[in-house]
Amino acid sequence: MLNLAERIVKEGERLGFEDTLVIVRRSRGTLSRFSDKGVALNDSFDSSEVSLNAGKEGRKVVAHFTIHDSDEICKELKRLPNLLKVTDPLAIYAALPTKIEKYRVIDGLFDKRVGELNHFEIMRDIINNADGEKVDSIAGTLTLVESEDAMCTSQGQEGCYKRSEIELNLRAFADKEASGQGIAVSTAFDKFDYLGATRKACREAKMAEKPVNVDPGKWEVLLAPPVVANLFGEVGMFASAYYVDAGISFLAGKLGNKISMEGLNLFDWGNVPYGLASSPFDWEGTPTRQTRIISKGVLSSYLHNLTTAKRFNTESTGNAGWVVPEPTNLVIAPGTETEKSLLKKVSKGIYITNNWYTRYQNYREGTFSSVGRDAAFLIESGEIKKPLKGIRISDSLPSLLSNICSISKERYWVRWWDAEVPVLAPFMLVNELGITTPSCPA
Amino acid sequence: MYEEIAELAINKAVSFGASWAEARIQSDDSFSISIKNGSIEQPEIEKIRGISIRVIAGGALGFASTNALERNRVIEAAEMAVKGARAASLLTKEKIEFANGKEEKADFSVREKRPFENVSPKSITSLLKELDLRVVQSAKNAKFPSRMFTLSYQKTRKLYLNSEGSQIRCCVPRASFHFLCGAYHPLKGTIERSFQLGASDGWKAVERWKLLEKVEREAKSLEKNLVKGKRNQTASMDLVVGPEVAGIIAHESIGHPAEADRILGREMAQAGGSYMKPDWIGKRIGSESSTVVDDPILPGSYGFYLFDDEGVKARKRVIVSEGRINEFLQNRETGKNFRTGSNGAARASLYSVEPLVRMANTYFPAGNWSFEELIEGVAHGIYMKNFMEWNIDDKRINQRYVGLEAYQIEKGEIRDPIKLPVLEISTFELHKRLDARGNDLEFHAATCGKGDPLQAIPVFMGGPSLRFSGVRVGGDRKC
Q1: What pLDDT is attached to residue B478?
Q2: What are residue A135's phi and psi, to 5 degrees?
Q3: What is the pLDDT of residues B385-429, one digit of tens each?
Q4: Which of A313, B82, B145, B361 has the CB geometry, 3.0–4.6 Å to B301, for a possible disulfide?
């Protein structure tokens, strides 16, 4: 793979590019959709991709080829110089670094057992275990991926790494309206607690039977890790200096400002051991690292690539995607509470276990709503009283951040269909969170 | 050459034990250029091509894909598909069968009168710069500090073969424009608008859109709403929505729940289920004004196709007719289950993903009322022309639309702008309250997401202006 990357870089040099970076990726794996009735579809995939960022004379072009034929890719490259000629020089052109980096090996990034697993056995285990939990049905997705990246630049930088990923997203259903979700994700099979996720989904589905409507208003709300992951994944995206610079981030102009409680520390951690999005380098060859986005409640850093770093007169944080700097793994530092102690603190409030469909009124102000999904509960005098339905969080991210009051020490890695950025997420207690409901509920 | 590869895949899959097999070779070539706050960004090009093989073996479905279109790798993929299906069959209680075994032969291509590929990138960047300047210059009382516009082009070519003898070839080009703009006023704060335009066409579509006039109109309305808009007092009132809002209502509250795979629970772990039940054909879910159709064969539409990705001839589907559910969106698997057959609703976004039950172009058909007549009938209400925030629960009942360009209606006349009115309501209440459809049918492009891995597919959403009587509209932050 590195040979192919080098060949394409050389072809770029021959075509006159000053800065060329090539990443070749091969991904293989399986994805299965299953339910208590069996496997709805078993999908095996094997693909190779070549991504290229090439620049000269202040102009750049980005190309992505998911085609296997390397001769064809080299032929396609010949189109790029002409394309560059007729486009504008960029407002800011950041050349690739000439300093040769030695990349660190990241612990736990690749577990060869993942590629050797019999995923049908795992699904059988899940189906059998759910069967004993007395839920009506289950539905889930199990994904196993092995990938290998090789990177090469015209400045002589090289790197490669392998990563394995195993991911279960499971929902259990009980009664007519009740459901619970369980998530298990890891790079390593040892840390993949799929039976724990199965039990959690089933338990919460049973607890959520016969839900009732809730009054809209400002509530004290306990957010479970999947909700925290969904919303902090958004915070991570808004920390991208590209969106800040474009004026479409609620974090614009707030660097150095206190935006949350002192106990909130949010990191982007591109090389965290066992991180689902960990890699030794970003898509500009910059070594990945830990970046404090929020430190003791203060907005401390945006996420940068070389271009935004130049624009903001700082250094890249190793978050380069192709054009936009993006979060890698987000890690929220542990608090001092437990899930149970957080629950005890609530005299009257709501516990939300999952959400989806987060959409914005205004990115600059961070006003949004997000729909409750799966189990939600009314809390009274520190205890779960009854299941709820029809919940929507309707508030703003600045308000949510400023109203966080407690964080648990238990944390879980979350990544699923509607929370794409991996987040090591705790439970969080938030005051005065806006909850709305349909005017005429079902 | 590709036919040989696809035939090889099918023949091998059958020889490995598949009772049915299909192969789809798909290539997607795309190109896009953006402008961000007056500066042209780097152009992006993408080429994705490969083969997928889907089989039934032992009564279960197997799917495999590779982008290596070489004999040995394709044979390997065919074997993986069959092995996967056989292993899955050991866990599967219900055997999978497909409806519609008819052999189809077709070749359909959308011809661009002015191919996008023949337009120089210089012309595209010039247009983007003109658009940016037009927005900046349209400001009188506010500023537009956030402006991101993208022009994109995608050409999708597919070759579909199956073991029943079907062979379908198609080529569909698509042009699209994305607009995101934020206005700012020191005393009034900010407001943002985003929308997408799209068509199955080339550069002619871009010319048709009259983008300079369009972005100027949008910028002016954004500024007016920011500077003069007032908050709505939450109350029950009549609500008139424009075609863009009608489209999202059709898509979210009728189109998605009518997808038969959701109704059968096949999407429960991802995009969710449906309030519609298998035996709900004929059931009333709205007023007589509530009719929603999905039509893939609409010429020039963003969601256009003539044969779906299971080789079934596409046709118009009337999902809800005068308030009653008329038919669901079906693929071959669900069509067998429902004993209706497929109605050609299977779509796959890339070579590497399975075809799922999807919408194409979902809309409320035009009614008989002129826009003026709709407004005349409102004593006190709101006209919500377009929207920004929206979402819906995973059963497609509890939905929310936050209007952007919106106005008060008093005694049958459109009056002052209203800031961010909120409609948060159940599907049944919403469709029960629909009392009139305008005659001003429009379509709006969107990119719809479903499946795991997420498949983003082009669709139209549309409708005429719609009037709802006596719905609760919020927006004073008390709702």
Answers
A1: 47
A2: -95, 165
A3: 999 999 999 999 999 999 999 999 999 999 999 999 999 999 999
A4: B361
Chain A residues lying within 8 Å of B50, measured CB to CB: 47, 66-68
Identify the three-state secondary structure at position B141. Answer: coil
How close A68 comes to chain B (CA, Å)?
A: 5
Last residue of a domain, one of B228, B254, B280: B228
Q: How many CB atoms lie within 10 A of CB A112?
A: 10
Question: B35: distance to nearest CA of chain A, Å?
Answer: 10
Cβ contact, residue pair A46, B77, below 8 Å: yes
N-terminal to C-terminal alpha carbon distance within chain A: 55
Q: For residue B394, what is the nearest residue in chain A, using CA coordinates?
A: A373
CB atoms within 10 A of CB A210: 12
Residue B291 and residue B322 in contact, taking contact as beta carbons nearer than 8 Å = yes
A293 φ, ψ to 5°? Answer: -80, -50
Of B37, B40, B63, nearest to A88 by CB-CB distance is B40
**Residue B8, SS3 per DSSP:** helix
pLDDT value of residue A441: 58
Q: Which domain holds residue B113?
A: 2-228
| A323 with B44: Cβ contact below 8 A | yes
Q: What is residue B479's predicted lDDT score, i.e. its pLDDT?
A: 41
In a shared domain, residues B453 and B391: yes
| Cβ pair B42:A61 closer than 8 A | yes
One-letter amino acid of B232: N
Rounded distance between C-alpha atoms, residue A249 and residue B11, angstroms? 53
CA distance B394 to chain A (A): 7
Rounded Cα distance between A32 and A7, Å, is: 36
Q: Which residues, other chains included, contact B1 with Cβ-Cβ below 8 Å and sequence gap of 6+? A: none
Reported confidence tier of residue A372, pLDDT bands at 50, 70, 90: very high
C-alpha to C-alpha distance for A175 and B352, rounded to whole angstroms: 36
Give the whole-angstrom CA distance, residue A116 versus residue B301: 46
B92-120: per-residue pLDDT in tens? 888 999 998 899 999 999 999 899 999 99
Q: Among B394, B419, B432, B478, which would you mutate to test the A interface (most chain A Cβ atoms within 10 Å of its Cβ)?
A: B394
User: Considering CB atoms only, which of B61, B352, B424 is closest to A45?
Assistant: B352
Residue type, A438: P
Mean pLDDT of A372-393: 97
Instruction: Taking the CA atoms of A420, A423, A425 and A430 in sequence, report the sign of the dihedral they define.
Output: negative
- With a threshold of 0.90, does the pTM exceed it? yes
Cβ atoms of B316 and B293 within 8 Å: the answer is yes
**Spatial distance between the Cα atoms of B8 and B2, rounded to a whole number of angstroms:** 10
- A-B C-beta contacts closer than 8 Å: 274
Domains in chain A (CATH in brackets) are: 2-207 (3.30.2290.10), 211-442 (no CATH)
Q: How far apart are CA A66 and CA B440, in angstroms?
A: 42
CA distances from B355 to A258, A300, B22, B330 (A): 48, 45, 11, 11
Spatial separation of the C-alpha atoms in residues A149 and B457, rounded to whole Å: 28
Q: Which of B90, B269, B398 is facing A170, going by the closest CB pair? A: B269
Asked whether residue B134 falls in the same domain as residue B269, the answer is no
Q: Which of A268, A267, A240 is nearest to A252 (CA)?
A: A240
Contacts of A139 in chain B (CB under 8 A): 265-266, 268-269
Interface confidence, given as ipTM, is: 0.96
Do B305 and B275 sit in the same domain of this protein?
A: yes
C-alpha–C-alpha distance, residues A236 and A250, integer Å: 11
| Contact (CB<8Å) A373/B393 | yes
**Coil, strand, or helix at residue B157?**
strand
CA–CA dist B473, B470 (Å, integer): 9
Q: Quick check: A417 and B275 CB within 8 A?
A: no
Enter the tokens of residue B34.
């953006």
